Amino acid sequence: MGTVLWGASACGGGGSDKAGADDPKAPSKPSASASPSPTKPAGPPMLLDTITPQTGTTVGVAMPISVIFTDPVAAKARATVEQHMKVSASQPVAGAWHWFGDRRADWRPKTYWPSGTKVKIDVDMKGVSNGNGRYGVHGYTHTFTIGDDVRADVSVPGHTMRVTRNGTVVRTLSINAGSPQYPTWNGTMAVIDKQEKVHMTSCSVGISCQKGSPNYYDLTLPWDVHLTQSGTYVHYSTGDPTPGSGSALGSHGCVHLSLSDAKWFYDQVKQGDPVTITGSPRAKAPADNGYAAFNLTWDQWLAGSASGEETTTTL
């Protein structure tokens, strides 16, 4: 199964605050890669689009489990549905589900996952009602591992990114972030995915579709680490080749690194590693704009849960 969230092919600093509103490639309907155990349905089937992370992957400490349903789940059915989405781990971890609308439910730990934790998600929907006349007909299982604790802390006014691994500072890099017109999101965003090259256009995120405009661009750029569904990346830009306080060029919402630093950072990070941005005039990224679950306080997270805090069962 591919990554659940597909990013806009541009820096999305000028887009809507609603995830995916400015993103023509944001999510269609990828299919869940699970091993189904069919049973006779009690009515129209309730199916899943995706479960993320993919089974067998190693992810970062800020990675939520994200389950997307093909059809709406009614509020009255969510507690039962949550009870049939069981999270197990190799060590006890407190966490909870949170609903973003009526088709997406994410489970995040109360604090970051401990490195080395092995995690299993069992989604047993067989016979379970979504409260809207549909019933589950499959069971799904994904297993994944929490890797090294890699974090990147970006200071917008300081033009720096500090990268740590398991609590030790590895490098501090020079950066430029969004301009005053197109500021970068604040907050913590877990890496969605990364690509060696991305074709980025200003038109795809609603900035400018007119050639000759000062904000028009149509570029294929390397070493792209994807942070938000609305189009925020950490990457190299040919228009800002030596970022830092000396150049102080602003982006359209992305974080710019030099070519060598962008390649180095690309090689360090994985899906689920937290990138935390501070000092931007923009608000924190919405928690469903990619995997920005930790932009909500724990109380805010629990307010979107039907069954509340739970502790994982032991693998």
> Mean of residue pLDDT?
88
Question: Total strand count, please?
Answer: 21
Uncertain spans: 13-33
Widest sheet: strand ordering: 2-4-7-6-20
What kind of sheet is the major sheet? 5 strands, antiparallel
Structural class: mainly beta
Beta-strand content bin? 25-35%
Measured as a percent range, the helix fraction is under 10%
Structure report:
This protein is mainly beta and 315 residues long. The chain has helices at 78-83, 259-268, 298-303, and strands at 45-46, 48-52, 58-59, 65-69, 85-89, 94-100, 104-109, 118-124, 135-136, 139-146, 150-155, 160-165, 168-174, 187-190, 193-201, 218-226, 233-236, 255-257, 274-278, 310-311, 313-314. The strands form 5 sheets. The protein has a 5-stranded antiparallel β-sheet. The chain has a 5-stranded mixed β-sheet with strand order 3-10-8-5-21. The two termini are 24 Å apart.
Features of the shown structure:
single chain; 315 residues; mainly beta; five-stranded mixed beta sheet; 3 helices; 7% helix
List the helices and strands and how they pair.
Layout: E1 45-46, E2 48-52, E3 58-59, E4 65-69, H1 78-83, E5 85-89, E6 94-100, E7 104-109, E8 118-124, E9 135-136, E10 139-146, E11 150-155, E12 160-165, E13 168-174, E14 187-190, E15 193-201, E16 218-226, E17 233-236, E18 255-257, H2 259-268, E19 274-278, H3 298-303, E20 310-311, E21 313-314
Parallel strand pairs: 1-9, 3-10, 5-21, 11-19, 17-18
Antiparallel strand pairs: 2-4, 4-7, 5-8, 6-7, 6-20, 8-10, 11-12, 12-13, 14-19, 15-16, 16-17
